Amino acid sequence: MPTTARRYLLRKALSVVLTIFLIVSLNFILFHVLPGDPTRVLLPKGGGSTNVTGGQQLREALLSEWGLDRPIHEQFVIYLQHMFQGDLGTSITYRIGQPVTSIIAPRLLNTIVLVGIATILSIVIGTKLGQIAGWRRGQPSDLAITMVSLVAYSIPTFWLGLILMFVFSLALSIFPSGQLDLSADPITIAQQLALPVTTFVVESFALYTMIMRNSLTDVLTEDYMVTARAKGLSTKRQLRDHAYPNARLPMITVIAFNIGWILSGAIAVEVIFRIQGLGLLTYDAVRARDFPLLSAAFLVATIGVVVANAIADVLYVYLDPRVTEA
C-alpha cells in the first residue's frame, strides 16, 4: 500500500476514534443536563412508598454504581469506565433492573434483518431506476420515473404503512402484521417482512433514484463521455466503463450514511407493524422515560453511522485515488 494511502487510513482511524469519544461525551452530557435526578422516576411523586418493588433499593444501587451523587467530572470518569467494559447501564422503568445490553441484543437482529433487507432493496431499485432516468433524460421514461419517485418520497410513512396493513392484512388477510419471528421457516419470515419492507422501500428508494439520476446526468456532459461516443463505443460500454464508475461516487456517501442508520431501526415502520426492533425499543424507552435505555439506543445508532461513513471514506481511496492526494 502506498505511503500516502497509509497516512490517509491512519488519519481516518484516528478521526473515527476521536469522533466516537465525542459522541460518548455528548451522550453523557445530553442525559445529565436534564433537571433533577433520573432515578427519581423509580419513586412516586410526593414520596411515600415506592411504585415498584425494590425501587428505593435499585435507586440507591444506581446512585452508587454510576456515582450520580458525585461531582459531574467524577460521574463522567465512571461513565467512561463502564463504556469500556461494555456496560451501557441498567433499565430503570422499561424492564426494571435488567442490563441495557440484554434488552438491546435480542432486538438488534430483528432490526438488522428488517432494515438491512429493505435498505439493500431500496439501493438496488433506486440505483437502477436512476440509471435509466439519467441515461434517457428528458424522455418519457425519465419523466415517469422522476414523477413516481417524487410521489413515493412525499408519501408519509405512517400513512402508507397503515394503508398496506388495512388492505393486505385486515381486509384481504394475505400477509400477517405485528410480528417477526426469525425462528420460523423462510416462507413465514418472508410473509411477515412483506408489508414493513415494502413500506420502507417505497419511502427510501426515491432518494437513491434522484441522486443517481442527477449524478449520471452531470457525468454524461463530461468531455470523456463525448470522446467515448466519438470513438464509436456501444451504449453498454459507455455506461459500464465511463459513466457508471464516475456517477457512483456521490452515491457512496448517501448509501453509507443510510446503512449506518440500520442499527437505529426504522421507528415509524417498527411502531406501526409492532416489529420488536431497536426502533420500537427507542419509542418505548421515550414513553417509559428510561434514560439509560434511551442513551444506549442513541449511542448504538450514532456509532453505526460513524463506522459506516468511515468505511465509505476508505472505499473512496480505492475508487478515486485523488482522495489521498487532497
Q: How would you describe this structure to a colleague?
A:
It is a single chain. With 326 residues, the protein is an all-alpha fold. It has a domain at 101-288: MetI-like (MetI-like fold), CATH 1.10.3720. The protein is built from 13 helices and no strands. Helix 10 packs antiparallel against helix 13. The longest helix is centred in the middle third of the chain and has 36 residues, at 100-135. The chain is flat, with a radius of gyration of 24 Å. The chain starts with a helix and ends in a 7-residue tail after the last helix. Residues 45-53 have low confidence and may be disordered.
Summarize the structure.
It contains 13 helices and no strands.
The profile of the biggest β sheet is: none
Q: What is the CATH superfamily classification of the domain at 101-288?
A: MetI-like
- Rg: 24 Å
Shape: flat
Percent of residues in beta strands: under 5%
Kindly report how far apart the N and C termini lie.
Answer: 17 Å
Mean pLDDT rating: 80
Q: Got a strand count?
A: 0
Secondary structure: elements and pairs:
Layout: H1 3-30, H2 55-66, H3 72-84, H4 100-135, H5 140-154, H6 157-171, H7 186-219, H8 223-230, H9 235-247, H10 249-260, H11 267-273, H12 278-288, H13 291-319
Pick out its properties:
single chain; 326 residues; mainly alpha; MetI-like fold; 13 helices; flat
